[in-house]
Amino acid sequence: MSEFQSAYQEEERKLDRALASIDDQLQQLRSIPVYIGDDFTEQALEASREGQRQKLIQSAQEPYFGRLDFEESGREFMPLYIGKAGVSDTVGKQPMVIDWRAPVASLFYSFTGGDSASYEAPEGLIEGKVSLKRNIVIRQRKLERVVDTFNENADTPGVSDEFLVYRLGENKDNRLRDIVSTIQAEQDQIIRALKNTALIIQGVAGSGKTTVALHRLAYLLYQYKEQIRAERMVIFAPNLMFIDYISEVLPELGVGDIQQCTFTDWAAKVIGLMTVPADGSAGLMRWFDDHARKQEIRTEQIYPGRYKGSMEFKNLLDDYLLRIEAECVPQVDFEPWDGNRLSRAEILEWFEGEYKYYPVARRKERLLARIHRWVEMELKKSPSAAALKERKKKAQQREKAYAKKWPELDSFQLYRNLFQMKKNADFAVEDLQARIPAAVWKETKDSLKNGTVQEDDLAALLYLFAGVNELDSTLTFDHIVIDEAQDFSPFQVAVLDRFVKGHSFTILGDLSQGIHYYKGIDDWQEMQGLFAQEETAYFALTRSYRSTMEIIEYANEILKRGVGTDLLAVPVFRSGDPVRLEHAQSGESKLKLIKQALTKVLNGEYRTTAILTRTLDEAKQMYESLTAEGLIANLIDGDKTQYAGGISVLPVYLSKGLEFDAVIVTDVDAQHYGPQDAKLLYVGCTRALHELWLLYGDQIPEYVVTEV
Ligand SMILES: Nc1ncnc2c1ncn2[C@@H]1O[C@H](COP(=O)(O)OP(=O)(O)OP(=O)(O)O)[C@@H](O)[C@H]1O
Fold first, then answer.
1. Which amino acid positions bind ATP, per UniProt (predicted)?
2. N or C terminus: fewer CB in 10 A for the chain?
3. Which residue's CA is minimally distant from atom 9 of ligand 1?
4. In the chain, which segments carry CATH 3.40.50.300?
């Protein structure tokens, strides 16, 4: 019998035993009647049993995916089986399957060969030796594949990528999936990083940033069970369709309830805006489709979004907040009725003394309540019932009038005040205004006048909100993930830092995919600089797992020529077809080539293929042409909330974060892709897993290679 056959049989026997034990435990649990009464302790026990039941149901299909033979120095050797959830055996209650997030399981991911291995456990560093690392594919209770990625008895013992390459070669459906069986050492380091750190991750296209961030959430929930809760964690993602695309990963990892939203939607809710600023198709079209507008904006020195996302603007708002605090107590004494007076000096003393540590809005609230109590005490001193009645009436009116003299400490009103939108300004702001670039000031004032809040005003509005209000636990998070963070501004992150405990962030992005030149950052230092050195850590992911070598090398060339960056992706050794570069000037030749490129998705070989146009209008036209040909496709515009797979037609800027078995980029010519659009084209090309087609015109941008 070959070595492989004996390994396979050994694992089959092991699987039979494991499944029998799991089935047995599940049966026992199911035999306990479900508790539906009011007893709190019983309810908690029932919830725990239900959790256990769900875990076993999942494990009964695919109990584990890996085996690691680790001999801990001085202890008996035991093969460790690693799965999505830990399971103990029925007899000795010994661990039968180890949860992938447990400290010892980290060895499965971090071991990269060698005679000794160690992992960090709560009790200290555990050292030993790894003799076998085995990937095991089980689907619906059947053993499908056994691949040794390390075996010390093999002729060439080295950790191989064979299993990873096999996994990457599979076709993807319309959802991102978990990668627990093939997490790479550099990814594992990020997943297991300490909670109270602002992690900043620069990862090339396809390096697994989004996937890793989701696994990190599952890890944090496991490792810090007592300190964090799923519903107090949030993922900020670029749009609702992307949220739909990633929605399967957390449930696959047994994690639910984590909030997933766009920054815009969340911010609008916190501030209480009636209308959410446009960041759907209308907002994006303004930048990517409206060429005239784009030229006009580009000639301006300052993009409003860049200024309003800067720390300079934040500093200005800090000065504004100081002024609000200094000037918000009305410049008058309070006189509940003629002849009785509470001096402003005394009110100020309360405001600046006892209540000093409350935010301004809370101080205002407490102060007005205290004045009311003071009035009640004074009323008791009334000489007669008639005087009491008279004074009470007066005091009521004057209390109301006095409260009205206080400025409205609502963040929207304060912001309007800064841009002189209020007739009787509550605070003098001329000097502050003078610090805002004139063009930004005018544009913001004009849009506020129309009652419109722009997306780039949200950071300031939230900052004012956090500056004057108390942020209670319903508003703050245990951990925040920011995906596509290269499009976030430093100010946005600084604001979010007010809403999270212990700077607990996972901030991930790729500067080479920073296509929103009117916002975002040019260097991660802009974000790292927001935190003290010991509060933050930076990781770079350079290996790309999504695309074949041919696609990555082609996309890298675009970046090298068009941007001159050194942030290039290193492919995993997975080879595929050469990139197809086809000249297609006329609509007819274009459609013919597209139909040819769609063959594999139409005959079921691929599950997803995307046609990426330069603009939304062109995507609509393409969609209509395909429909006229009888093809079923999905048009993706910025307002779509679900991603269906199959054939998708979309403008390239909306493809960020997504991936497809094959990608067809149309209209690659100088008219559609200007000198500044290399990153946009790079994003488009790096969406492809196995096959990339580029349909180019007569005049091609300098950064595009037409021969490979
Ligand atoms: N360790 C891994 N094992 C298997 N597949 C992986 C691994 N890491 C990443 N992948 C796969 O690579 C693809 C890209 O992952 P993901 O979308 O998370 O990358 P990203 O860095 O966020 O990409 P981009 O910035 O280009 O949107 C996914 O299909 C993911 O499943």
1. 203-210
2. N
3. 208
4. 567-696
